[in-house]
Amino acid sequence: MTDSVSWLMIAGVIVSYLLGNISPATIMGRIYGVDIRKAGSGNPGTTNTLREIGPKAAAVTLLIDILKGVAGAAIGYALSPGGLWMYVCGTAVFLGHIWPVFYRFKGGKGIATGFGVMLFIDWRLALCLLITAGVGAFISKRMSIGSVAAAVAVPILFGITRGPGFAVWGAAIGLIIIWRHRGNIQRIIRHEEPKISFLDKDNKSKKEKSRDSSADVKSAPATEDMNTISYTDDPDPSDQAADEGNEVSRKDKNRDDK
Fold first, then answer.
1. Rounded Cα–Cα distance for residues 72 and 114 (Å)
2. How far apart (Å, rounded) are the C-alpha atoms in residues 228 and 26?
3. For residue 162, with 0-12 CB atoms within 10 Å meaning exposed, 13-18 middle and 19 or more buried, which class applies?
4. What does the CA dihedral 98, 103, 106, 111 come to, rounded to 10 degrees?
5. Distance CA 242, CA 171 (A)
6. By the 8 A CB rule, do 172 and 179 touch?
7. Dihedral sign, CA of 55, 57, 60, 65?
8. Which long-range contacts (CB under 8 A, 24 or more apart) does 50-57 make?
9. What is the rounded distance in angstroms from the CA atom of residue 163 to the CA atom of residue 74?
10. Contacts (Cβ under 8 Å, ≥6 apart) of 121
11. What are the CA-CA distances from residue 154 to residues 38, 90, 173 (Å)?
12. Pairing with 23, which of 154, 213, 232, 239 sits 20 to 30 Å away (CA)?
């Protein structure tokens, strides 16, 4: 390896790491006027963006984070086609997403960017990991459980398809992802982890009931006002008869005085 090639590879690793520093969740938050690092869970990732901003911003965040991983691994492949450098640069972009120097080393959890790296290395393994995450999230109704399930599957799949050395690399990636989800795991143990909104039927029914109750409360004053108007427009017959009797008595008294 010549000096020029070695410097080129070092530059590739640095560029991949800095590429990982790009935070689409933070950018989308600024566009929508939301500080995504303070809102919700505070994690600048797809799930928190979905909860705090909306599906469009979350889709953009997911796509850019995946493309970051693809680009990082592609840089390594360009430096050494078929070699280990796509793993090295892929790891660099993954770490740059999790510990970005531009954001005081406080980044995301690495799921989407890690998936992008896997997608470039072997799309079949990436598809298996995606299915694993999807099944875990669907059954538990919690994206964090799906992510942890996929992290556990990474070393297993790489060990089966590529050998023990790659299983060690996969285990390192998986352990970092699980460690980044330690807060989610603690909330799961305490039964405090929020569920995915569109999969949580119980939460949907609660929201609908709350919406109906609010509508009933808002309509109540209007009903009372109508009752008051009705009461005012239609006086009590007994009160009307008493008024007529008083009028007759006054007329009789005036006649007697005359």
1. 10
2. 54
3. middle
4. -30
5. 94
6. no
7. negative
8. 51/194, 51/197, 53/28, 53/29, 57/25, 57/28, 57/29, 57/31, 57/32
9. 22
10. 73, 86, 87, 90
11. 31, 14, 8
12. 154
For residues 184 and 191, what is the distance between their CA atoms, to the nearest angstrom?
Answer: 10
Phi, psi of 79, deg, nearest 5 = -75, -35
Q: What pTM was computed for the model?
A: 0.73
Question: Which of 92, 125, 110, 118 is CA-nearest to residue 46?
Answer: 110
Listed in sequence order, the residues at least 6 apart from 60 whose beta carbon sits closer than 8 Å to its beta carbon are 24, 28
21 contact partners, CB below 8 Å, separation of at least 6: 96, 97, 100, 101, 102, 103, 107
**Would you tell me how many other CB atoms lie within 10 Å of the CB of residue 127?**
12
Q: What is the DSSP string of 85-153?
A: HHHHHHHHHHHHHHS-GGGTT----SHHHHHHHHHHH-HHHHHHHHHHHHHHHHHHS-HHHHHHHHHHH
